[in-house]
Amino acid sequence: MGFRKDFLWGGAVAANQVEGGFNVDGKGLSVADVATYKPNVDVKDYKRNVQVTSENIAEAIADKTTTFYPKRRGINQYYRYKEDIALFKELGFKVYRFSIAWTRIFPTGKEKLPNSKGIAYYKKFIKELKDNGIEPLVTLSHYEMPLELALEYNGWADKRVINLFVKFSKACFESFPDVKYWLTFNEIDSVTRHPFTSAGIIEDKTDNLEETEYQALHNQFVASAMVTKLAHEIIPTSQVGCMLTKLTTYPATPKQGDVLAALNKNLMNYYCADVQSKGEYPKLILAYFKRHNFDIKMTNEELKIIKANPVDFISFSYYMSLLAAEKENGLEMTTGNTVVGGKNPYLKATDWGWTVDPVGLRISLIELYDRYQKPLFIVENGMGAKDIRESDGSIHDSYRIEYFKEHISEMKKAVESGVDLLGYTSWAPIDLVSASTSQMSKRYGFIYVDQDDEGNGTLNRYKKDSFAWYQHVIATNGNEL
Ligand code: BG6
């Protein structure tokens, strides 16, 4: 028994990391457009890289160039999408995950009517995918909310954003009825790790940051449920998923204190998917709010909406596992991410310090399936690495092939043990701007893009060795790795 016959093999990206064209055809600025590439910051010092202050935002708005704002230029997919889709077709893709930039449809988030040029672009884009036999998988919110909403409302901290997001989503469902698979919020749990990127929360304007993050998450749960309902009404065949960052945590030792620490981390990691899938807050989370005196504003009406509109499937990203201990000071910690945890001495790590744990993927699949009993979809998994393009244009990325081979092989074992898995989209099929560090040199693709961190390069696309390898995996439906 292997993968289902209609298994959705493909790749995943986000608009702000690939499109470019940040100020054309009526697009407004998003929170991603003020994310800075900082050449002199050690990329392993991730936390310092993502901290955004009111001062940084003001500087960024005044600067109209793209030099230190790589997400404004992406990899120019806005203009080169036909060429990229042709390459995805050659890879054999059944599905392509991308996000619709909210600011292309509603430039500030507050307009009454959608921007027709934004709609027209995604219509063309989706048609091109369909014409090439590729199913779109659309993320409605992937770290790119209108900047205006962050500045005016402190992002998702304010309930007024809920209806603005519902308006945007409704415009998408009405304009793109051919799309069957939708995700509401990318890595929803990440609000507590990078509140500005994920929810438009400006830290220096926020009194109680942790409380505000949980309020923003609650507002997103309400919006997600409202949008799930709308999707089902407007596109009856649609399937809507939640999306979590699967962070599997092991106890650092068998000591009881460490086991408890790991248990608590895992429960925290599950809670967003619990709310979105079961339609209810776990009682332990409500007790956590109470213990910390968090006054999260939730009405009975909102709780009813959440209860009545659970998601159809569970999607997640998987990059690493972590260790937890009762006393963390004895542990070496991971670097290079907003996710910080104990480093597992038995595992290798990437150049950015992300631990590589393929068996952890199998463990995650089994745990998630057992907990939710809904189909799963792996919508991100991959390895950021420094690739070298040889003088003949070839790129020998055997380490990436190794990474995918090990992960897909564990994924197959999970499926063989009974997990219902809809598909797998690698992050990312083509090199793009890193979400965390805004680097180009942190490369993920099967396709190399000739562009450096400062934006120099021809933007030409080249196939890496992993291209033919993944093509064969898809052609054999994962039977030959
Ligand atoms: C996920 C995000 O957290 O990780 C992506 O959903 C991101 O947007 C990916 O690109 C890899 O992270 P990074 O920082 O290496 O780009």
TrEMBL record:
Signal peptide coordinates: none
GO molecular-function term, one example from the UniProt record: beta-glucosidase activity
UniProt keyword list: Glycosidase, Hydrolase
InterPro entries: GH, GH_1_N_CS, Glyco_hydro_1, Glyco_hydro_1_AS
Record has Repeat as a keyword: no
Enzyme active site: 380
Superkingdom of this protein's organism: Bacteria
Record has rRNA-binding as a keyword: no
Similarity annotation: Belongs to the glycosyl hydrolase 1 family.
Protein name, entry field: 6-phospho-beta-glucosidase
Species of origin: Liquorilactobacillus ghanensis DSM 18630
